[in-house]
Design goal:
- Helix 5 crosses helix 6 and helix 9 crosses helix 13.
- This protein is elongated.
- With 386 residues, it is α+β, with helices and mostly antiparallel strands.
- Helix content is 36%, strand content 26%.
- Strand 8 and strand 9 form a beta hairpin.
- The strands form 5 sheets. Strands 1, 8, 9, 10, 11, 12 and 13 form a 7-stranded antiparallel sheet that branches. Strands 2-7-3-4 form a 4-stranded antiparallel sheet, with helices on one face. It has a 4-stranded parallel sheet with strand order 15-17-18-19, with helices on both faces.
- Bound molecules: guanosine-5'-diphosphate (GDP) and manganese (II) ion (MN).
Length: 386
Amino acid sequence: MKIHEYQAKQVLAKFGVPVPAGRVASTPEQVKAIADELGHGIVVVKAQVHMGGRGKAGGVKLAKSSVEAEEAGKDILGKVLKSKQNPDGLTVRKVLVEQGIDIAKEYYIGMILDRDSKRIVVMVSSEGGMDIEEVAENSPEKIAKAVIHPAIGLADYQIRHLCYAGGLDRTLVKEVGKFLRALYAAFVASDASLAEINPLVVTKSGTLIAADAKMNIDDNALFRQPELAGWKESEEENPIEDEAAKRSLTYVHLDGDIGIIGNGAGLVMTSLDVVAREGGKPANFLDIGGGAKAEVVRNALEVVLMEPKVKGVVINIFGGITRCDEVAKGVIEAAKTLSIKVPVVVRLEGTSVDEGKRLLSESGLNLTPAATMHEAARKVVELSYK
Ligand code: GDP
Ligand code: MN
C-alpha cells in the first residue's frame, strides 16, 4: 500500500527522522493559513498524489509569501498530474504545505525489502533529487548498497561504506548514520516494503533533512498496522476496480486490451497466460468464483466492458459447481442490456455444457464459441486485433 508524502513524513518524524515543519491542506484557504502559521520565509506547496516526478509535472511550487502559497494551492489543487508511469494522470486533492529548505546538496537514500536476499537493502547515492532509476540504469556505480542483517541491524561499517561508496561528503558520516538508523527503525516498525528519501537535503547550515519521502507498506502486514491501514484510499485506485468491488467481484485492472473472465483464480491466471502467449494483452483479471449465477456473469461482463480500451473479451468457464447454462444466461442478459461492440469468445466446459451452448447458439447474439481454452485465446486475439 502506498502512503502519501505527508503521511510518510508523520511516520518518519515519530522515529526521529528530520522532516520540514508542515501540514496537509485540501483548499487554497487552508494553504494560506498553514503558510501563515509557518511564519516568514519560503514555503513549499506539494501535490499529494501517488506518483513520482511531481516536481517536473508542475506539482511542487515554492512561494515567498502566504498569498503566493495560496495562489500555488489554487493552481495545484484540482490539477491532473501526468507522468510516464501515469499517462492518464492523477487529480490532486491534497497538498502538503511546508517550510522551505535552503538546499546546499541533494542526496538519495532508499530502503527496500529485497526479495532475493530476503533482507532490507539500503541504497545511498550522491545523485539525489533526480530520477534514481535513470542513475541505476546509466551509472549504477554511483549507488552504494548494503544488506542489513535483521539481528544486527545497520552496522557502523555499513554506514561508512554507504557514505564513501555513495560519494557523500565525508564530514557527514555521523549525521547520515543517525539519519539512516532512524529511517531503518521507522521502516521496520511500520512493516514498510519501500522507503525513499529523494532528495535527502544537506542544508546551507550543514544539517540533514528529508525534503521528500515515499513509503510503501507491506499489504500483508496491514492487519497489525491499524493506523497505517486506516490511510488506505480507494479514490486513487482504478474506478473500475471500485465498481467491481461494489458488485463483489474479484477484479484487477491491467494495462492491456483483452477482457478476461473466468471461474477460479487459477483458471483466470492461466487464461491470462494463454492470451498473452497468443500475443494478446490482458486488460484485467476477473474471477467470477464458484457457483456463479447469471446475475454475477452479467455484472462481470458489464464491468469488463467499462474499460474503454477493451477490444475483445474471452470468457473461459470450466463448470464444476458453476453451471454452464447459468453462465450462458448471464452472458445473454448482459448482451441484451449492453450494446456489445467487441468480439466475445466463449469457451464452456463441464456441468450443463450442452444446455449452455444451446442457449448461446439460439440467442442469436454475435458470440464466438471455442472448444478449448487455447482456441478461445487464439480466436479472441485474432478477432480483437484484426
Ligand atoms: P518529486 O518530484 O515528486 O520527487 O518531488 P520532490 O519532493 O522530490 O520535489 C522535487 C524538487 O523540488 C526537489 O528535488 C527539490 O529540488 C525541490 N524542492 C522540494 N522542496 C524544496 C524546498 O523546500 N526548497 C527548495 N529550494 N527546493 C525544494
Ligand atoms: Mn522526490
